UniProtKB/TrEMBL annotation:
Pfam families: SBP_bac_3 (PF00497). It comes from the Bacteria. Residues 1-23 form the signal peptide. One of its GO terms (biological process) is amino acid transport. This is Solute-binding protein family 3/N-terminal domain-containing protein. PANTHER family: AMINO ACID ABC TRANSPORTER PERMEASE (PTHR30085), AMINO-ACID ABC TRANSPORTER-BINDING PROTEIN YHDW-RELATED (PTHR30085:SF7). The keyword Mitochondrion does not apply.
Length: 344
């Protein structure tokens, strides 16, 4: 036994001599996408063609909204300024091919993260930016307060999507007879709804809240309480650039952590972070440098768009055009399910 112990000790000593504890950390990751963005001077961001609150041009032609600002945060983190981003409007059919072909660096276009999409299209969802779900909108004067009261109605839905499948499955399971009116796009659906060609419009909550603002009297239309699907809205990148995926992932996580630990836009702009906010910035710098980012990258992102709470409130929350409540998108300690891994 002593002989075997001596041999084992000698073997371990030899291994440790070849791999000392003081060995240097792995080399910094290099992102071809980041290098290309630096060379052209901006990040390419794929967004919706026009979805109020999420990504749409304002009266001056500037892109505004929740997802547009996530791209600004990435631009600030990587290139030092939030305005270093160019937006590429994409329709439902072209969004995946545009990312695959390298026409955009980031896809932030109200896209549901599914296993099929991640496996089939060769890209990676780096995080959930918004917890969404499919619902129903109907004229308030009909007095309907539940989807279970939709018997005999005509329901508009985008054709060939998971929304059409969800609608059929849910109402059939509930024993609610209805007539589906599938149309090619959200715009065609909202126009049909406005014209009275259908009684109900079924889509993701985010879409319903957004398109309701285009109606003459938005408050005359009620969004019913039922959510009939899980729609985790994700930010996607190509899977062939690990470092870029980590940069976008931790920028999103950084905005969420910034809310949790009190790093606000005002504090980031002043550079006067203290306590947990300072710990967050210092901790993010340690790993950020390995990703090719400059120290202070997270502070730059928060200075550009605010933390998650500030971003949500300004674009789609109470201070924005949609007036959405946080709901599932509240922090985990505030009754929601929003959660980001620690960064120190």
């Amino acid at each position: 036994m002593k002989m075997r112990y001596a041999v084992l000790t000698a073997t371990l000593s030899a291994v440790l001599a070849c791999h000392p504890a003081s060995a240097q950390s792995p080399a910094a990751l290099v992102s071809p996408t980041l290098e290309a963005a630096k060379a052209r001077g901006h990040v390419l961001c794929g967004v919706n063609e026009g979805l109020t609150g999420f990504a749409a041009r304002d009266a001056t032609g500037e892109w505004q909204g929740f997802e547009a600002d996530i791209c600004r945060a990435v631009a600030a983190a990587t290139l030092g300024k939030g305005e270093a981003v160019r937006y590429v409007p994409l329709d439902t059919n072209s969004r995946f091919s545009a990312l695959q072909a390298g026409k955009v660096d980031i896809l932030a276009r109200n896209t549901t993260w599914t296993m099929e999409r991640q496996v089939k299209f060769g890209f990676e969802f780096v995080g959930i930016s918004f917890f969404d779900g499919q619902g129903f909108m109907i004229r308030a004067d009909r007095g309907v307060v539940s989807a279970l009261q939709l018997a005999g109605t005509r329901i508009c839905v985008v054709a060939g999507t998971t929304s059409e499948a969800n609608l059929n499955i849910y109402l059939q399971q509930q024993g609610v007879p209805f007539t589906a009116l599938p149309l090619a796009s959200h715009q065609q659906n909202i126009e049909a709804y406005r014209a009275g060609k259908c009684d109900v419009y079924s889509a993701d909550y985010s879409t319903l809240f957004s398109l309701r603002t285009s109606l003459e009297q938005p408050t005359d239309h009620a969004i019913l309480p039922e959510l009939i699907s899980k729609e985790p809205i994700g930010i996607a990148v190509r899977e062939d650039d690990r470092a870029w995926g980590e940069i976008v992932r931790w920028t999103l996580n950084g905005l969420i952590n910034a809310e949790e630990f009190g790093l606000t836009r005002a504090i980031a702009l002043s550079g006067a972070a203290a306590g947990d906010a300072a710990r967050l910035m210092e901790g993010s710098d340690v790993s950020g440098v390995r990703l090719g980012l400059k120290r202070g990258w997270l502070g730059a992102a928060v200075a550009a768009v605010g933390n998650y709470a500030e971003l949500f409130d300004r674009t789609i929350g109470d201070a924005g055009p949609l007036g959405m409540k946080r709901g599932l998108n509240a922090l985990w300690r505030n009754g929601g399910i929003l959660y980001a891994p620690p960064m120190w």
